[in-house]
Amino acid sequence: MEKILTVGIPAFHATQTLPILLGSILTQTIKDEVSIIIANDAPEDNDNYNFLKDNYPILDINILSCEKNTGPGLTRQRCLDNCKTDWITFIDADDVFMNPFSLENLINNITPNCIEV
C-alpha cells in the first residue's frame, strides 16, 4: 500500500517512551498508509533504537542515526529531508496519539494551499 503520510519523531534518549508512542500508532486506522521516521539526536544511542523495527514489524520505521547532538530543530529538519510522502506531521517521542482516528482526521482535513494566478 502506498504511504500517504510520514510521522516524524525527533528522539533524544527515548528508548523507554518510543514503544508507547509506536503502540499508539498501531491503533491508527490508517497505520498501513503511514511511514515513520525516528531521528535520533544522541550519538551514543545510535544502536539503541534498532529493536523497534523487530518489535513493530507491521510499521514502516526508518531510523536515522546522528554524528552529533544538534537539537530538536535540526532533528526535525532531518525528518523533512528524508520524507518520501507528500505530507508529514511531527510528534515528540514522549507523546501519543490518543484517538485511533487522529491521523485519518488529519489527512481528511488537509486542504491544498493553492494560489490562483
Describe the structure.
- This protein is globular.
- It is built from four helices and four strands.
- It has helices spanning 18-26, 51-55, 72-82, 102-108; strands at 5-11, 34-40, 60-64, 87-90.
- The protein has one domain (5-102): Spore Coat Polysaccharide Biosynthesis Protein SpsA, Chain A.
- Helix 2 links the parallel strand 2 and strand 3 (60-64).
- The model has no long low-confidence stretch (mean pLDDT 93).
- The longest helix is centred in the middle third of the chain and has 11 residues, at 72-82.
- The chain has 117 residues and is an alpha/beta fold.
Q: What is the compact description of this entry?
A:
The protein is of the alpha/beta class.
The mean pLDDT is 93
Q: How can the largest sheet be summarized?
A: 4 strands, parallel
Radius of gyration: 14 Å
Query: The CATH topology is what?
Result: Spore Coat Polysaccharide Biosynthesis Protein SpsA, Chain A
Helix fraction, binned, reads 25-40%
Supply the number of structural domains.
Answer: 1
What's the CATH H-level superfamily name? Spore Coat Polysaccharide Biosynthesis Protein SpsA, Chain A
CATH structural class = Alpha Beta
* Shape descriptor: globular
Strand content: 15-25%
The count of β-strands is 4
